[in-house]
Design a protein that fits this description.
Blueprint lengths: L1 E7 L4 E13 L2 E13 L4 E13 L4 E8 L14 H4 L5 E6 L1
Parallel strand pairs: 1-2, 1-6, 2-3, 3-4, 4-5
């Protein structure tokens, strides 16, 4: 999934690739994540490869995986599922809210 804003709700579970400007995880995520700004809130669970320019993990969140800070999101750092058109500036969805 590719969007400017992605919110994974408290009771939601996502398995797959996420690319977003702003990502908030309240539920579960497994897969590959690339986000400029990522927030993992208390009670959330993330098992993923995560590339971010800014990461906030609240106390009580459960994280496991490979978390690395990057300076910019490029076609090289974005998940394979993100379309080339989106990486070239084409529009993905404005926002996803998964509850």
């Amino acid at each position: 999934m590719n969007a400017a804003l992605v919110v994974v709700g408290e009771h939601a579970s996502v398995q797959g690739d996420i690319s977003a400007e702003d990502l908030t995880v309240r539920g579960e995520v497994q897969g590959t994540v690339v986000a400029h700004k990522a927030l993992i809130v208390a009670g959330a669970r993330v098992e993923a490869t995560v590339r971010h320019t800014s990461l906030t993990v609240q106390s009580g969140a459960r994280i496991d995986g490979d978390f690395r800070r990057i300076t910019a999101i490029t076609a090289h750092t974005a998940p394979a599922a993100v379309s080339r058109a989106a990486m070239a500036g084409g529009s993905g969805q404005e926002a996803y809210a998964i509850s």
